[in-house]
Design a protein that fits this description.
By secondary structure, this protein is of the alpha+beta class. It has 16 helices and eight strands. A hairpin with a 6-residue loop joins strand 7 and strand 8.
Length: 512
């Protein structure tokens, strides 16, 4: 059993852990009405990582800690700004499987071993408002760190940390920060105890997640594309724990990261060697497909439930809502298990290794060293031309299954064009952003049309199940007809939306 909490904190250098005379008076700062001492604890933590420090390189930590009020296993995952998520599990002799799984996208299945032992003598103070409500916790630690290799190296230092209470406004940190700075108390030079311990005990330095490969020419097309690829890889890796815990929108976001990566590797073949990237694209397609079952079920259930909720009661004949709910519960559980099976598979771990290698040793082609403007613009225009051809083909077809398929292919081309603009926005500026926005509007129309196609297929299956159970089919037919009308409306809307995207100045604006 695990539980999690969000931590928002800042660390500071401390002159001493034994003498607190240096600590500024914080009573009266912002809403702090009193500072109450809470005593001292002895904390003993062993930190685990892979031999090449993959967790530390991803700004994550895993430790087993005794002492204090929250003794147990702690996995800390980075969030935005000063925040992290801490997932806790009870004390046990070995790493809990639940935490091992949540760390898997960062360890990529490599063995976790003890790397550093950190012992702290911690004094704690509570910062309270005038009602006695906890605003923040201030701790001062005397830290002793020992490496855990064949030889032991020790380091020692003092540090202070301020962690906000759950409902405290983060602005309090800025106010306290200014007060501390005026008193000569500066922010710590390391993001965590582990990072400092790894450095000062000589265990090693992990590869930073935003490090640029040495082979990339600064200011080149390769640098622009790889910066985007690296960001999407990090997004995919970071979303893995959320998908495992079925967090809202996590599957959708992870699937989008897969699509963005696939599209970028396809669109920028002039920059990255397709002999290397094409197999990665195929594996991203597989992962996106496995995640797609869960995401498609989410979208479909929301769509059908919304239609039903807007249907007048007198037109809802039979147990339509109950059947829809039972179908969704069963389908959603099956789809989520499919996602979990994919994330726990050797194939997924192999994909993560391929993505790590892609960013660390990019297969750059000759054009990667060129200035980015022409290289990126040419790639975008190539995708745009493909989109133009597919839209033209689709609108010429008569209504029916063939046209539905052609519109779906145009939708996929719209996504590829939109994603192609994203790595280029820093270089091409407003023209790339403007095209991305216009193509997104096309994608939205085509996406709603495709959702209607999928909804109608499922409505027919639900209607057949209802018929077999002796239930009426009137309402299912009504919903089907509504979807037909929506699809026809989107088809009528497409030409005007496409005309807005198909501006004649496109090539001149992009410089292609």
């Amino acid at each position: 059993m695990t539980k999690s909490k969000r931590e928002t904190e800042r660390k500071y250098e401390a002159p001493s852990a034994d003498d607190s005379s240096w600590l500024p008076k914080l009573t009266g700062v912002a809403d702090v009405a009193s500072v109450v001492e809470q005593g001292t604890d002895e904390l003993d933590a062993v930190y685990y990582d892979t031999e090449d420090l993959r967790l530390a390189g991803a700004a994550a930590t895993l430790r087993r800690r005794t002492g204090g009020a929250d003794a147990g296993w702690h996995l800390k995952l980075p969030l935005s700004g000063d925040s992290r998520e801490e997932v806790q599990a009870p004390l046990s002799p070995t790493i809990p499987d639940s935490l091992r799984d949540l760390a898997l996208s960062r360890t990529r299945g490599a063995e976790l071993v003890p790397v550093v032992r950190i012992r702290s003598t911690r004094s704690t103070r509570h910062l309270l408002d005038e009602d006695g409500t906890l605003l923040a916790e201030l701790t001062v630690d005397g830290v002793r760190a020992d490496s855990m290799g064949t030889t032991t190296t020790r380091a020692a230092w003092a540090e202070m940390e301020i962690e906000l209470a759950e409902d405290t406004d983060p602005a309090l940190l800025d106010v306290l920060d200014k007060t501390l700075h005026k008193k000569g108390i500066e922010r710590a030079g390391h993001p965590s105890k582990l990072a400092r311990a790894l450095e000062e005990t000589g265990v090693g330095a992990p590869r930073l997640p935003d490090g640029r490969a040495q082979s990339v020419v600064e200011g080149s097309a390769g640098e622009e594309v790889l910066r985007y690829v690296d960001a999407q890889v990090r997004t995919l890796v970071a979303l893995d724990p959320a998908v495992r815990r079925d967090r809202p929108d996590s599957v959708h976001q992870m699937r989008v990261a897969c699509r963005r990566l696939r599209s970028t590797l396809r669109s920028y073949r002039a920059v990255l060697d397709r002999d290397v990237t094409d197999p990665v694209r195929e594996e991203l397609k597989w992962l996106g497909g496995e995640l797609g079952a869960e995401r498609d079920q989410e979208v479909l259930a929301e769509r059908l439930s919304a239609h039903l909720s807007h249907t007048p009661e007198e037109l809802v004949l039979g147990p339509v809502a109950a059947r829809l709910k039972a179908w969704n519960v069963a389908s959603a559980a099956e789809a989520h298990q499919r996602s979990l099976d994919a994330l726990n598979s050797p194939r997924y771990l192999a994909l993560l290794d391929s993505l790590a290698l892609l960013t660390e040793q990019p297969p750059l082609r000759r054009k990667a060293a060129r200035k980015p403007k022409k290289v990126l613009a040419k790639a975008i225009l190539k995708e745009y031309d493909r989109l133009s051809d597919r839209v033209a083909h689709a609108v010429e077809l008569p209504p029916g299954a063939e046209r539905d398929t052609a519109l779906h292919q145009a939708r996929k081309a719209a996504k590829k064009t939109r994603y192609a603009t994203e790595p280029a926005r820093a270089t091409l500026g407003k023209p790339a952003k403007r095209l991305g926005k216009r193509v997104k509007a096309v994608q939205k129309v085509l996406g709603d049309h495709q959702d209607s196609v999928v909804a109608r297929d499922n409505l027919r299956s639900l209607a057949l199940a209802a018929y077999s159970a002796g239930e009426g089919g009137f309402t299912w037919g009504l919903l089907y007809g509504q979807e037909q009308g929506l699809a026809a409306e989107r088809e009528r809307e497409l030409p005007s939306v496409w005309a807005e995207a198909a501006k004649r100045r496109l090539r001149k604006d992009l410089g292609g």
